[in-house]
Amino acid sequence: MKAIWNNQVIAQSDATITVEGNHYFPADSIKKEFFSPSGTKTTCPWKGIASYYSLTVNGEKNTDAAWYYPEPKEAAANIKGHIAFWKGVKVTE
């Protein structure tokens, strides 16, 4: 799978985990140069507290376009160390 934003591959992996229709990419499959930490946090009742990254590609910023669960609840333990995308990031094979 590939995650693409602003015509740039920002993550690529054959080992994504699909949860609720979202592909979670292993942390080592992202191109870190496009990611910056965000202060945003949200809570999912069964996964826990999500943290976010913003993307910057070719001078354009996509705020909070990627999320992850640093300490997921037990029911979501399989996505620890994985990152998912939204806000216009296209995930394709």
Describe this structure in words.
This protein has 93 residues and is mainly β. The chain has a single domain (2-92), classed as Domain of unknown function (DUF427) (Metal Binding Protein, Guanine Nucleotide Exchange Factor, Chain A). The protein has no helices and nine strands. Strands 3-4-8-7-6-5 form a six-stranded antiparallel sheet, with no helix packed on it. A three-stranded antiparallel sheet has the order 2-1-9, with no helix packed on it. The radius of gyration is 12 Å and the shape is globular. It starts with a strand and ends with a strand. The mean pLDDT is 98.
* Sequence of strands across the biggest β-sheet: 3-4-8-7-6-5
Can you count the helices?
Answer: 0
Radius of gyration: 12 Å
Structural class: mainly beta
Strand content: over 45%
Number of domains: 1
CATH superfamily: Domain of unknown function (DUF427)
Largest sheet: 6 strands, antiparallel
Written as H for each helix and E for each strand, in order along the chain, the element string is EEEEEEEEE
What general form does the structure show? globular
**CATH class, anyone?**
Mainly Beta
Uncertain spans: none
From the 3D coordinates, which CATH architecture would you assign?
Answer: Beta Complex
Arithmetic mean of pLDDT: 98
* Cα-to-Cα separation, first versus last residue: 4 Å
**CATH topological fold name:** Metal Binding Protein, Guanine Nucleotide Exchange Factor, Chain A
Helix content: under 10%
Could you tell me the number of beta strands?
9
